[in-house]
Amino acid sequence: MEEKSKVLVVGATGKLGRELVMASVAASHPTYALVRDLSIVSSPSSSNSDKWVLLQSFLSHGVHLLQGSFDDYESLIEAVKQVDVVICAVPSKNALEQKPLIRAIKEAGCIKRFIPSEFGADPTKVQILGMDYDFYEKKAEMRQFIESEGIPHTYISCNFLMRYLLPSLVQPGLDSPPRDEIKIFGDGNTKAIFVKDCDVAKFTLCAIDDPRTLNKTLYLRPPGNICSMHELVDMWEHKIRKALRKIYISKEELLKAINGTPYPKNMDMIFIYSAFVKGDNTYFDIDSSGVEATHLYPHVRYTTVSQYLDTLV
């Protein structure tokens, strides 16, 4: 049997990071997790009890815990030298903080694949640059840096994670789907894409040793996960057996609301405008710089939007 790549997950205790760790374990990769403070393992407290439980779970699954952070370059070098693949899942707001990690990968010279922290819409395709408070510009800058350093890579474009916007049926300010009336943004026909964290992780782990994804973008466009607002509402109405009153919010009204709401409270509306008005998840065809995950890995089972909505009824 071919020896499995050793995988390091940076940002391992985050919501997506922990799924990447467990997907790596499930795929039988020797798995390493970079942790800022390993003293938690031996000295739990009430303030870090959740993280302690998570790290204990990692250990029980054979995950190797390594102490390190972006602020400690030597710790990054030491960690990177122990593995073959690095997957970074730090929050998007910290995207530029990946630069020391990339320098460490360059210096170590042993990494055959780097997966940077993108895990959203393709920053080179979005049409809202200038109104997103540099959210996508930072990710595009990281791509340029990775490529200028000659780092072998794969970008993961999963668009929306299901835990974002979908629990409210794309209703800013709500925590659960409405049962009486619903706002529909734009014409209601533009499609967005939602993928569950654990499924993003499974597809990502499939890609790390695949030559077809080397230096390409892996787009996640699973059938059943590409939905317009009209389709979301239709699914929900069918599940709750009730018609909702529809309130249409035009492009102009949405832009006015965005401009009239201070940052960061307007970010949900900005992402809605991007996906459901401009069509940034789906307006383009995948060209030779990218590949589609479900075409490459048809064996991967994933949660559809309809199945996810079943959990909210």
UniProtKB/TrEMBL annotation:
Residues 3-309 form the NmrA-like domain. The keyword Metal-binding does not apply. It holds the Pfam family NmrA. Signal peptide: none annotated. This is Pinoresinol reductase 1. Keywords: NADP, Oxidoreductase. It comes from Rhynchospora pubera. GO terms for molecular function: oxidoreductase activity.
